[in-house]
Backbone:
């Protein structure tokens, strides 16, 4: 079986690693476009851009690819699945229209409202005047109450502002709509939401549009600094553990969110075959959807896939062919964690080119997997930094504390000039205001 993974980050490294462990791995050839230095140990990396849809389809044809797995949201928003299906190529992902559940927050909010999926109250604004009218109307709180302001489109983790006051919310609206805060077409419209309070969780699942299989629930850390300080990032760490979603809350999420979402997609004619990521806020009134993503999160993928016992190729193939109902998925009973090691300056202006020390020693530790997110071969051997998030140190264990201990034991062996990471992964302050994120 020939498999193509599309992307170049830690999530794609974890996918390639997992594909190399499956029951059919010995008879499998894995390619990754464009890949990275760490992925090259598990797959043949091809220098084709992740959003070069035509070139990726041509690659799949020339290499006789049996199954393609997109890693990130950008190729899906660019119509990768549509192009592949037009050419008769097998791919596990949603079409461009279905991917709007992530690529347009306004589209997602309208979808949730139409199908009764619980979410925060919101308004959509296409101008500063509309935004001010909304914020000054008291819809999201009396007096000087703040709100969550989000760019409508994909913004690489920079399109969300949790404003504590109305003045901060108005400023965010001006910066997004007129000041180029996000850039491109992402902020031609903005979504303004009430601020929710509670506990965050991420619920991911595979679906072929009809059937679905849940993954272990995860929680992540988006802020760059300990204690949730500093700007949002793509993600500084994630965990899975039994207390992320208790059985009763999980059942409610399935009943009120997962199944209405999939039923709504079918009713709207959205062809969704792939991974659905549901960002949740567990409020006193019940679970609320913060966002949809139409693919694995990063670093949630690392923490989740390390617990997967079923061959992922079997799952993704069943998803792509509409046969997920015939497939069972099994997981280890452990907890897991991923700690991200980042470069100096991340997330604003990360430095690159620093030589990474101690990686070999860390990789020798039992129960630990290290996934490359932003690395390149270093002159003279080894690896150097080539991005903001550089490595994802990942481990599973009988308890979350055990998994975290294994992660941080490995982290202590790695070093480069400017390396930084959070020392409080898995330690969550409860009851804080939500940060609805775009990963």
Residues:
């Amino acid at each position: 079986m020939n498999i193509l993974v599309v992307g170049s980050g830690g999530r794609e490294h974890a996918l390639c690693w997992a594909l190399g462990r499956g029951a059919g791995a010995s008879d499998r050839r894995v390619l990754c476009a464009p890949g990275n230095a760490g992925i090259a140990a598990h797959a043949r990396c091809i220098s084709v851009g992740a959003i070069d849809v035509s070139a990726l389809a041509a690659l799949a044809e020339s290499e006789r690819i049996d199954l393609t797995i997109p890693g990130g949201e950008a190729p899906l928003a660019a119509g990768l699945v549509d192009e592949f299906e037009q050419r008769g190529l097998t791919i596990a992902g949603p079409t461009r229209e279905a991917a709007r559940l992530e690529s347009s927050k306004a589209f997602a909010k309208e979808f949730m409202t139409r199908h009764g999926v619980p979410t925060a109250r919101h308004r959509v604004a296409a101008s500063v005047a509309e935004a001010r009218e909304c914020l000054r109307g008291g819809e999201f709180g009396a007096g000087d109450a703040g709100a969550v302001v989000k760019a409508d489109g994909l913004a690489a983790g920079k399109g969300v502002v949790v404003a504590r006051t109305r003045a901060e919310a108005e400023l965010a609206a001006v910066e997004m709509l007129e000041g180029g805060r996000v850039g491109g077409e992402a902020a031609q419209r903005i979504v303004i939401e009430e601020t929710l309070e509670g506990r965050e969780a991420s619920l991911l699942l595979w679906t072929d549009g009809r059937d679905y299989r849940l993954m272990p629930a995860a929680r992540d850390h988006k802020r760059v600094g300990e204690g949730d300080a500093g700007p949002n990032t793509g993600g500084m760490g994630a965990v899975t553990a039994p207390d992320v979603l208790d059985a009763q809350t999980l059942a409610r999420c399935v009943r009120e969110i997962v199944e209405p979402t999939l039923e709504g997609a079918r009713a709207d004619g959205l062809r969704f075959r792939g991974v659905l990521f549901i960002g949740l806020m567990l409020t006193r009134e019940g679970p609320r959807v913060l966002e949809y993503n139409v693919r694995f999160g990063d670093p949630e993928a690392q923490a989740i896939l390390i617990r997967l016992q079923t061959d992922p190729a079997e799952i993704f193939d069943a998803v792509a062919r509409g046969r997920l109902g015939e497939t069972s998925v099994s997981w280890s009973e452990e907890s897991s964690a991923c700690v991200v090691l980042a470069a100096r300056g991340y997330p604003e202006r990360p430095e690159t080119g620093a030589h990474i020390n101690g990686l070999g020693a860390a990789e020798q530790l039992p129960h630990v997997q290290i996934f490359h997110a932003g690395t390149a071969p270093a002159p003279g051997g080894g690896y150097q930094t080539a991005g903001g998030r550089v490595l994802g140190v990942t481990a599973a264990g009988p308890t979350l504390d055990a998994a975290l201990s294994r992660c941080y034991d490995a982290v202590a062996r790695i070093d480069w000039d400017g390396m930084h990471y959070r020392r409080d992964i898995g330690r969550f302050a409860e009851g804080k205001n939500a940060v609805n994120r775009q990963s």
Summary: The two ends are 31 Å apart (CA to CA). Confidence is low (pLDDT under 50) at residues 431-439.
